[in-house]
Structures are given as structure tokens and as C-alpha cells.
Amino acid sequence: MAKAITPKKVYNAFYAQSGGVTAVINASAAGVIETARKYPKKIGKVYAGKDGILGALYENLIDTSKESKEAIAALKYTPGGAFGSCRHKLKSLEQSWAEYERLIEVFKAHDIRYFFYNGGNDSMDTANKISQMAEQLEYPLTCIGIPKTVDNDLPLTDNCPGFGSVAKYVAVSIREAGMDVASMASSSTKVFVLEVMGRHAGWIAAAAGLATEKAGQPPHIILFPERVFDQAKFLARVDEVVKQYGYCTIVVSEGVKNAEGKFLAEAGTKDAFGHAQLGGVAPVIAQLVKDKLGYKYHYAVADYLQRSARHIASKTDLEQAYAVGKAAVEFAVKGHNAVMPIILRQKGRTYGWQISMARLSEVANVERKMPDTYISQDGFHITAACRRYLSPLIQGEAYPRYENGLPAYAKLKNTVVPKRLKTAFTLKKA
Amino acid sequence: MAKAITPKKVYNAFYAQSGGVTAVINASAAGVIETARKYPKKIGKVYAGKDGILGALYENLIDTSKESKEAIAALKYTPGGAFGSCRHKLKSLEQSWAEYERLIEVFKAHDIRYFFYNGGNDSMDTANKISQMAEQLEYPLTCIGIPKTVDNDLPLTDNCPGFGSVAKYVAVSIREAGMDVASMASSSTKVFVLEVMGRHAGWIAAAAGLATEKAGQPPHIILFPERVFDQAKFLARVDEVVKQYGYCTIVVSEGVKNAEGKFLAEAGTKDAFGHAQLGGVAPVIAQLVKDKLGYKYHYAVADYLQRSARHIASKTDLEQAYAVGKAAVEFAVKGHNAVMPIILRQKGRTYGWQISMARLSEVANVERKMPDTYISQDGFHITAACRRYLSPLIQGEAYPRYENGLPAYAKLKNTVVPKRLKTAFTLKKA
Fold first, then answer.
1. B3-60, pLDDT tens digit by residue?
2. Superkingdom, according to UniProt (chains A, B) (predicted)?
3. How many domains does chain B have?
């Protein structure tokens, strides 16, 4: 017996990861996919962009319906970007018209009427523009942003999924390395420098400050991009700390600049011939201490380790990353458009959070700065207010499963669906 | 009723941590102290040297009997050196006679007749010399070495406590960072370099190779100090890997040297004026790739993070670290002298281990090299034999307790006992 033909109301969804990945961005993906599977009468397949938005432009759509329930659930425990991400930024509608047009073309060809974009400021701007574009072209597209950034710089949301886990990693790492240095300092290394991410804002560096629960505990000094590097004041403080505690641990943000507005990492304090130094800011700071104060040093550069360290992710961060993915789909099926789930902190002494909603137009391209009141008077540590804000974000552990002594991270099939368009697409070179 | 006076048979013990600390050296301390407390008729107090052997020389003895049972148990979950360590090496009996004499003087003054020295090659040599010295002076001192080194270079023992946890850290880290790089490589970073410890031997770099369970998984290239750095061959391999997999992850040992026998970290491939480059080998390797192949890179320097990362310590390593501490005391009360507990691997397909005994004279100053058969033909990865040796050492997790989102590590009172000697001691400047 032939089935009755019903009018089509089920449309596919497109999900893409954008920009630098995090330890928990795949939890947002799991939130999207698992929730979409609960609405089979509204959402058909969830296609994921291979390498982010490039997947849509090149019509490389990964069919997530080919993945088992278990594989999708395992995404919650898997760092990196499971479908690939990219740093490609769409410019204004005028400048990047061809790209926007191509996106709509691909969406049409694959019956995609839901667009979920998982990223930071730039991506929210892109999602907003795509929404405007679709409206202009009268293509019914629901565009929902999903916040993600280790930089913690999206506005309106209390914090950004991805940040809490880096925060936990850097706080744990400086506590541990600090204990190492403390035990050797009487006859060996006296100064230890840890370089962390944060080119524009000191959120990650600030998070390291959580490790200092009592005066004298590492990190002793934090260098923020929000404060101009004052060499004399810094060296005086290092010397004071070493004399008081026997050693000094320093967390430096990669974005620290000197009075001329140059990144210390590039300014080079050593080379009289003006050669750019290899490496980042940690060796520059460490060498400066050695040259001026004579203390033996060691330094570490956490780099990608900090944002991929799923093994030590924050449970709170993980739950929030999942929740924004889930909420994005719920918003979409309820008919919202051009919005982004945000995290609202509940009032009161005990930390609590809930999901709320912000318009993409209000989020796009607005950068949330670290409040001035979060940095201590001397510029070298965080305040109690900063601690109250940051501390809840690193609470809880959510360990991955281990196999053979190593985390057993999800490996998806990532099956790309056959292309339907005859036209290939080539990006214009920037 | 007055107690009957019995002849004194209970003597104190001295325990010292030596050289670079590890994530689990305090577990050995816990093994020593908890076991000693089980023999109150033989061992009185366990004094720990403040900052290692310097604590004995300066008569700074920490009374571990002042620490609660809980505090000592918590040492199993605490990185760094709980009593302080140092890099002070005692030379030959002739050269350092005054120091050896001083040690015996301090031991006599505090009724110390057990000496437990927790360290690497140098320390086993020192423990052996102290034993000889005591014999010469007819002072009845039981000297027991306790193996510890992230370098894994002590002979006779199958492996060294401390190594397994670094091994696990570097394998987990390169797996995680590799997933990050893989997801961004199509439009961003293509080459990632992780610098790990190992100035003389490639054990730690080799351990990173455990993350490669299938061809193509990170790390793609390992640079060992056992292989002369061949720039052309290396660059060719990087290019090949990027072309095949889209990205390339590299683990480099800090000890890698060029054909002239110079550390790459110091050789500087960039600076025409011969200025020493700041920083280690990772930036040198990364910049070389950029200059010659044009690939965008990132690099991380794990430094102290790798050897203090108690949060991701190997359970096997932890258990072995505890076991050698425990065995050291058991050997002592059984009347053994000038020995060190070693770890014996049982024969057969399933990994098993037990504690055995080696003479300090056979351990002292013998460096265990990585077998040639552990490095693959092309020099860029580990062999199956190496994997079989290393894999059991990273098995199991043994998470610390968390408080406020951070590991709650033990903080001891470290009460120094009153000095009994009238003479102060000053080290001769080297």
C-alpha cells in the first residue's frame, strides 16, 4: 500500500564549527545533533560543514545521520573540531556577495533551512549577515549562533563555552609547575614563566590566578594585555617575590605589549641588530629576568595544549557547551531566528546558570573586555571580584574514557554526501 | 610503676629527595614514611631533608612524625617535592670529604642510622659513597637508594618511577593537540611542534609515540637525541606528511643535536650574526619548517608542566613509586645495605611487575640508554618493541581530589627539629 503524500515540512539543518577549536566545542555539536534527532517532524538530517563554513561553500556536507548514537554521545568527550573548522571570515554582503549567494545555493540544493554556526564574534556576525541575505533573497532560513571561544570575549553571555576548560587547564598547570619550582628553588630554578593565550584580553591569564588561594601561592605575577608592560616595575616585583618566597612564578599573556604598543613577543629585548626573536613572549620575559636579576629560569609555552586539554576540562564548561547546542535547536524549532543562546548567571551567593537568548545583531562584532576592576591595583594579579566571577567556571571534572592508558576520543565516519550542484566554487584569494 | 629500661635498638631514619622532582616522587616518600611507621621497634622518627641532602648538611631536618596519617597519605596525590629537593652533587670521597664527614656528624647527632636517598644516577652514586664512608668511620649506617627519574635512565630496573607519568602526559598532550591541529589545518596551522624533556636520552619523546595507534595519527615525527638531526631528511618527511595527511605534528626532544654535535636549541638556524636564540628547540624547528616549506606553525614547550602533571599521572607509575619507597624500608629493616629496590617486569604477554633488589655499586653512574631497536628505521618514530615496553607504564589513572575546581594537593607542616650541633656548615663554592 502506497503511503499518503503529505506536504513537506521537514527540512535539513547545517551545522558548522568556526575559528579556533576548544576542548568542548564538540559537546555543542552533540547538543545540536542529539536535540535535532528529537524533532524528526521538523528537522531532517543535520549536515556538518567539512572544515566549517568552507564545507558549505565547497558543498562538502558531512551526513551526521550516518553516525551512531554512541559516536555522537562520545563527542562530549572529544577535543578538537570533529568535523573540521576554519578561519575563513565572510566580509560584508557587498564584498563577499558571491560567497553568501553560494551558501544559499548550497542550502537550497540540500533542502537546508536551519543554519547553526558555532563560533566567536566574527562567526556571529557572519550568521547575522547570512540571515539578512536570506531575507533579501526571500529564502526561509533560520539562523542560530552558538557561542564558543576560549577568549571569553562574546558580549551578553555571562561567559563563553570553551573558556572554562582553558581556565581550568592553566590554573591546574601553574599550581603544579609552581610546586615543582618551589621544591627546587633553593639550589636551582628560581623563576618560572608560563605563556598562555589571549592576544587581546587577559581572561585566560586571569584564570591562572585562581590557583592562588593564599598569598604567596603560584602564580605570583600575572602579566595582562590590559596593562602596559613596565619593565622596571615588573623586575622589582620579581625580585621582591623571590626574596620573600624563594621563587617566583609568572603567567604571561601572549598579548602583552610595551609602552610603544608592540607585542613583547615581537619587540625583542635582547637582539641589538633588531632581528625578530623566534618564539613567543615567555622566553623574552625569562631572559629579561636572567639578564637583569641573574635568576635561573625555566619557561613553558602551553599553546594548543591549553585549548585541547579535554582530559582536564571543566564539567561546568562541558555542560554549558552542550546546553547552548541543545538550546540552539530548541530556539530554531520554536521559530526564533537570528539569535544566539547565552548563559545567564543567577543572582545570589551560590552559582547557578540558565540559558537565555540574545539577538545576533547585538552580539556581532561586540568584544567583551575584562573589567578594569578584575585586575589588582599593582597590575600583577586578579581581584576578589574576578575570582568570584571565574571560580564557578572551572568547577567539576568530566574525565574522558581511557583505553590503553590514553583518552579514547571519538572518531567519526564523516561521510560527505554526494554533491547536487554542477557548479564548483573557488574562493577568491584574499 | 617505672618502665624497665631496655637497650636502645630504635634508630631514626633520614629521607631525602634529590634532583629534578616528578609527579610521583612524593608517593615514594609516602611509601617510606608509612612503612617506617609499621616498624616502631626498629625505626624511630623519619626525618626528611629540607631541600634534599642540603637538609642534612645544614642540619635542617623535617620531623615527619608531626604530620598526620592523612597528610602523609595525601602525598600520594601531590606533585613536586614535598620536603624540597636540590641539585647538589657530592663528589668523590676525597674531593668532598668535609661534606661526607658532616653528614655522618649530623646523622650521629640525631640518632640516624637509616639513610634513604630518592633520586637518579648521581644520587645512587652518592648513597653508595656515603655507605662506604660510614663503613670507613665504623658508623653503622644502612644506606638504601630509591629510584626516581623522569629520564628513565637508571640501569637494572625495568623502568624508573616518575617516567611513566611524564610519558602519559606527553602522549595525552600530543594526541589532544594533534586533534586540534587536524581540525584547523585546511585553512590554518599545518605544523605543530611539541618540545619535551630528555637532554641525553629520547625516552620521553619516544613515549609520545604511544599516541600513534594507527598510521597517520599524531605524532607524525619524533626527533630523538639518539639520532643526528638531518635537516634535509626531516624537511622532506614533514612535507610528505603534510601532503598525505593535511598536517604534521612533531615531538622534539630538547636534546636533539646537529651533525656538529651542537644542541639545535643553541645552534640557531636563523641568526646570521651568531646570537644565541632565546628559547628551546621547538621554535628553531618550527621556524625552520616555516622558512623552508612555508607552512604555518604553532609550537608548545611543555617544560615543568610535563613532570609536575600529577592530575594526569599514570596509576602504574604511582603504584611503582610507592612500592619502591615501601621496599626501601623493608630492605633496611631486614638488614640489607647499599642496595636499591628495582622494578622487574614479569615474563609473558600480560604486563606484571614485582620489586627486586640491586646493589648501589652496580647502579651508580651507569646510564641506561634507549635501545637502538626502539627507534624506527627512518629515525622518526618508535618501533613495535618500543611500544610493547612503554605502553604498560602509562596504564591507569589515579586522579587527585579536587576542591574549588582545582587539585587539592597536600601541604605539610614541615617542622624542622631543633639543631643539636653547635657547628654551622657552609658549602664550599663550586
1. 555 556 899 999 999 999 999 999 999 999 999 999 999 999 999 999 999 999 999 9
2. Bacteria
3. 2
Query: CB distance B283–A278 less than 8 Å?
Result: yes
- Minimal Cα–Cα distance from A278 to chain B, Å? 6
d(CA A210, CA B212): 34
Q: Check: CB of residue B181 under 8 Å from CB of residue A21.
A: no
Looking at residue A226, which CATH number applies to its domain? 3.40.50.460
Task: Kindly give the interhelix angle for B281-293 and B231-245, rounded to the nearest 10 degrees.
Answer: 70
Q: What is the pLDDT of residues B95-133, one digit of tens each?
A: 999 999 999 999 999 999 999 999 999 999 999 999 999
Does residue B361 surpass a pLDDT of 90? yes
C-alpha cell at A16: 558548522
Beta strand pairing status for A353-359 and A339-345? antiparallel
- Structural contact between residues A246 and A185, judged by C-beta atoms closer than 8 angstroms: yes
Q: Is A340 annotated as a binding residue?
A: no
Residues B241-265 have a mean pLDDT of: 95
**What's the distance, CA A42 to chain centroid?**
30
Residues A317 and A200 in one domain: no
To the nearest whole Å, the CA of B128 is away from the closest chain A CA by 22
DSSP B45-77: EEEEETTTHHHHHTT-EEEGGGS-HHHHHHGGG
Question: Is position B203 within any domain?
Answer: yes
A299 and A340 housed in the same domain: no
- Cβ(A404)–Cβ(B168) under 8 Å? no
Same domain, yes or no, for B179 and B209? Answer: yes
Instruction: Give Cα separations from B56 to B101, B148, B188 (angstroms).
Output: 11, 20, 55
| Residues of A with active-site annotation | 151
- A298 and A324 housed in the same domain: no
- Report how far residue A236's alpha carbon sits from residue A221's, in angstroms, rounded to the nearest whole number: 11
Q: What is the CATH number of the domain that holds A343?
A: 3.40.50.450
Q: Which of B211, B278, B311 sits opposite A312 (nearest CB)?
A: B311
| ipTM score assigned to the predicted complex | 0.95
Contact B187 A86 (CB under 8 A): yes
Q: Are A267 and A281 in contact (CB under 8 A)?
A: no
Whether A239 is in a domain gets the answer yes
Q: Which of A308, A330, A354 is the last residue of a domain?
A: A308
Asked if A85's CB is within 8 angstroms of B304's CB, the reply is no
| Residue A45 cell numbers, joined | 538530517
Instruction: Tell me if B183 is assigned to some domain.
Output: yes
Select from B166, B143, B142, B144 the least CA-distant residue to B153: B166
Determine whether the interchain pair A21/B183 forms a contact, defined as Cβ–Cβ distance below 8 Å. yes
Judge whether B392 lies within some domain.
Answer: no
Q: Over the stretch A86-107, which tens digit does the pLDDT of each residue have?
A: 988 888 889 999 999 999 999 9
A324 and A240 in a common domain: no
pLDDT for residue A322 is more than 50: yes
**C-alpha–C-alpha distance, residues A132 and A119, integer Å:** 18
**Residue B172 distance to chain A (closest CA, Å):** 6
Same-domain status, B115 and B140: yes
Q: Grid coordinates representing A226?
A: 590590559
For A197-236, what is each residue's pLDDT tens digit?
Answer: 998 899 999 999 999 999 999 999 999 999 999 999 999 9
Do B266 and B132 reside in the same domain of the chain?
no
Please check if A37 is assigned to a binding site.
no
Q: What is the mean pLDDT of residues B299-305?
A: 97
Tell whether A128 and A223 lie within a shared domain.
no
Instruction: Take residue B282 and report the three cell numbers written for it.
Output: 621547538
Contact B168 A82 (CB under 8 A): no
Task: Choose the closest CB to B180 out of A21, A87, A399.
Answer: A21
B151 given a catalytic annotation: yes
Domain range enclosing B28: 11-148+314-366+401-407
C-alpha span between A183 and B119 (Å, rounded): 14
Q: Give the number of A-B residue pairs with CB atoms closer than 8 Å.
A: 238
Give the residue ranges of DSSP H helices in B8-64: 25-36, 53-57
Q: Which amino acid is at B123?
A: S
